[in-house]
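Lecture 7, part B: from sequences to assemblies.

Below are the input chains for today's worked example.
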Amino acid sequence: MQITILGGGGFLGRKLAARLAHEGSLGGEAISGLTLFDLHAPPGIEAPFPVRCLGGDVADPAQVATAIPEGTRVVVHLAAVVSAQAEADYELGLRVNLHGTLAVIEACRRLTQGPHASGATPPRVVFTSSVASFGGGQEARLEDDARQLPGNSYGAEKAAAELLLQDASRRGVLDAVSLRLPTVIVRPGRPNKAASSFVSAILREPLLGLQTELPVPEEFAVWICSPRRAIDWFLHAMAMDTTPLGLDRGINPPGRSATVGKMLSALESVAGPEARALVRHAPDPAIEAIVGGWPASFTAERARRLLGFSEQESLEEIIQGFIEDDLTATRAERGI
Amino acid sequence: MQITILGGGGFLGRKLAARLAHEGSLGGEAISGLTLFDLHAPPGIEAPFPVRCLGGDVADPAQVATAIPEGTRVVVHLAAVVSAQAEADYELGLRVNLHGTLAVIEACRRLTQGPHASGATPPRVVFTSSVASFGGGQEARLEDDARQLPGNSYGAEKAAAELLLQDASRRGVLDAVSLRLPTVIVRPGRPNKAASSFVSAILREPLLGLQTELPVPEEFAVWICSPRRAIDWFLHAMAMDTTPLGLDRGINPPGRSATVGKMLSALESVAGPEARALVRHAPDPAIEAIVGGWPASFTAERARRLLGFSEQESLEEIIQGFIEDDLTATRAERGI
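Predicted structure of the full complex, as structure tokens:
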């Protein structure tokens, strides 16, 4: 089967590509080819199947169509402008997060329903939506049918894109699974423009021996997941039977609600008090205004009981996972 | 104040324009000019202020910008491709219902935040969303925070547009009030491509002495409002204080839940059994598949108690209103 990863050069895209290369198959079927598409062509990877690496604009329908050739069975759409950046640059956020998704729908429609359509099975589209598409804040513990009332442009664009993907699924244009990802920790690399960047930084930077700042109080709770679990969820969403989803293509996967204080305690238990001491309190109202609106918890019953998405590890296991998977590469990348 | 009505040539747009011309003011302030924009330039109207009539494409940002000139204080965005048509022509629905709203946002952004912006107060944008943006069906009685999970493209496009307008309001680009209109009865003119067209037809056609078909059973319930009340709601939404709305710009106005059987009884009480006898049962699964998914009832507490939207009349008053306001013109238009 042919697979395309849009945003294939990003942190999760690269991990997913590596995992696919390692497995060689998906849902018991051999992978015949993989396309990695990002703003700049992602580096090639070793794989038991051909890998195409393309650079381009996800909001340009023609370029996205090239990235989703005839025969594509699965598209993983990770390409996005992150929260603080979408807030700062409205046009860019709309362009990538909304028009990018419209381009994906258009590309799939060309395959399944266009004038030259091959009558193919609607491709599975795994879309990364976000916890930021909800409101509710620290007090919230959202049910699966909670309304998306986002307090940030990134979340609004993601929620709008979900609606369009859900409708395209109903029409048989594609077969969407929209995962509202929790805040993924521990992200490797450097701090980025996501408002939630600090949630990874307070764990990653001390593990690198670097000081970092905590912009919110320690009792601040965040709905999180690990990169390992995010990849497990993607693989599950890429191959699962979507019949039980019916009309509702939005899934709140089983993340974990944890306070920043608990994360720092887990850091201390894994890496000692000297690691924790590298985290300095530096309140930032702009960051808190964005992340403070995101719900701190979900019931996630549908994903857990009906749809078979795997549970989250403990905070200690999440930190250990970063040390095993990403610490060395992050050191090298940052010259530490 | 300058006002623009997009979709100003349609049934509700013309009624609203006539009402504004009659009143001469809105919220105690004199109207200084009115722009009516539609696919074809709407006919001019008599008014105590200048009226511009423009024809154009609501999905073309340049044309919409022309329709929303500097100094515009209120935009009423009624331009839409209706439900059955958006279902039949996916591209057209997306273009008008989604990209049309994006063009409105862009035009308002040029006024308030663009490089040549005058720093104007964000214009009020009254957007007609729809009951079709919800699911739930006959059993539903939806709360104000119900999730929009539409089972039709029209509803998905409207719900996505609401999200984008809500976000643009939060950003100070505009000041949106999105009214999820019930099925408006009795519509004048001819049957149209809305899946709900029959709800008006079963009352209008008999009043014209014509036979008509009922595609659903008599116990089928619909969430309805009258044209008179819809216009009252528009006027209220155009001038209301939006502070109590906060982030949530979507409003379920206080419509009425009525079965088709009750509507036919009201028809009989107003126009006699011979009128009712003109309605013939002719089940249509395609129509029922669309309208059957729309919720039959809403609590509408927020609109009613917090926001001051007016209540619905009785079914008999709604029918009487059609006879008084629209029957003669409909006869003339259709040469009956």
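Note for the exam: The interface with chain B takes residues 90, 94, 98, 102, 109, 135, 145-153, 156-157, 159-160, 163-164, 166-167, 170-171, 173, 247-248 of chain A (CB under 8 Å). Keep this in mind when comparing with the next example.
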